[in-house]
UniProtKB/TrEMBL annotation, chain B:
Keywords: FAD, Flavoprotein, Oxidoreductase. Belongs to the acyl-CoA dehydrogenase family. It comes from Micromonospora rosaria. This is Acyl-CoA dehydrogenase. PROSITE patterns: ACYL_COA_DH_1 (PS00072).
Amino acid sequence: MRDEVVANMADVMVADAAAKIRGYLRENMTAFQDVELDDEDNIFERGYFTSLFAMQLLHYVESTFDIEVPDDYIILQNFSSVRRLADMVGELKASAGE
Amino acid sequence: MSDTGRSDVIARARLFAETELAPRAAEFDRDEFLPQDVITKMAANGFLGASIPTAWGGLGLDPLEYGELTEAIGKACASTRALLTVHTSIVAGTLLDLASKRLKGKYLAALARGEKIGCFALSEEGAGSDAASVATSYIRKGDSFVLNGRKKWISFAGVADLFLVLASDNGVPSAFMVERDMPGVRTRPMSGFLGNRATHIAEVEFDDVEVPAENLIAGVGAGFGFVVNTALLHGRYSIAWAGVALAQAALEEMCSYATRREQFGVKIGTQQLVQKMVADTVTNVAAARELCRSAGRSLARRDADAATETIIAKYFSSTIAQRATSDAVQVLGGNGCWSGYPAERLFREAKILEIIEGTSQLQQILIADVGYKKFARKA
Ligand SMILES: Cc1cc2nc3c(=O)[nH]c(=O)nc-3n(C[C@H](O)[C@H](O)[C@H](O)COP(=O)(O)OP(=O)(O)OC[C@H]3O[C@@H](n4cnc5c(N)ncnc54)[C@H](O)[C@@H]3O)c2cc1C
């Protein structure tokens, strides 16, 4: 029972993170990108962002979710879609015991 | 370190710059050589680890304080300031942000204490602004990576012990720390530059250089999006302050000259056309310094906008440095064109800032993109 509550809380956390990240990405897409952003879309492969934006995303997730992304997580793949970003945030929050 | 301790560092840097660097800067420039004693003194004073936390052997200055230190050194000697840009800001700063604990342990303290000198090897004959197109290659081989290729225009490569190298494996960019002593590393000095002439610029060749896997920075594939961008963020912050430094130096030259030189029976500084150049420089220096400070505060808070603010500061500051140093040459007239005065050297140094760490055109592209994102009304 307790495990289920914890698991649900984790789901809520990831969903909340996904919503924030989606908002941030939408805000930062250029005026020339008039597209709907899907949570599974690879934002770099689809050309919505260049990899220049990756570091800004790293700073964004670290400051918004108060986490430190360990060096072995710093690969483009983990930052490539709303889903992957939210999962990574959830995982790092969980491993920090929150 | 206490606040007083840190302001002492900046005071010490100013004194060092005025007494040890400024009187010799013209000689370094003419000889295209920064002597070892200068590098040793920069290290002994702790300046080469100025922005690195004390836990790693640095002085632990925050970005604003480090900016002031960069200005102090850069005002006296652009080539010595370039050592801070490359070694401290780019190499040590990137390791601090992105390297594993093990890699930090291996190199960061030695870099902070200046026992080892680091340089940043990104550019190649065919990869300048288009940095992602590097042809230097790496392949995995057991517990190591093997690097092959050639880098060009690498500041301090002539004397560096460590190279932060960007390479690609069929389009997957990764970054590595490479030691000069690793078999297959060769450097070839380059000379004849417009500015930054004493920065031991060299070509670097990697011929089947075997690098241990632990020397990979962040993950495989993190080379461009993370490592190069982090390196350029730190580099651009340093160049932004370097622009303030050169513009401030130019301002002091033009004001000193205009208040002494007489033509037509009056001091030239009383002429309104000269006053315009002075007024514009005073204003531009003040504005550039504030942009640098604002970027510094953002960096200290690790704001997501820090990169954008830094790009704006770098672009503005290098642009006005070019203008201010050109106006200094103008105010000094013939003396401005002669190496007996520093104005011509400042002028040459300022041009470099519009090229390195991303040319002004590349900054304009990035800034315009920010403009569209922030200011285009959403339909
Ligand atoms: C003194 C000095 C020190 C250096 N130190 C280092 C170092 O330590 N490490 C290192 O890796 N590199 C170093 N460099 C290299 C430097 O980073 C490159 O020179 C710089 O990135 C520009 O590349 P490029 O020279 O190939 O010019 P190019 O990229 O060929 O650019 C030439 C011109 O075309 C313009 N241009 C290019 N693309 C575009 C575009 N898309 N839109 C508009 N305009 C464009 C540029 O703005 C520029 O005006 C150094 C260079 C100098 C001069």
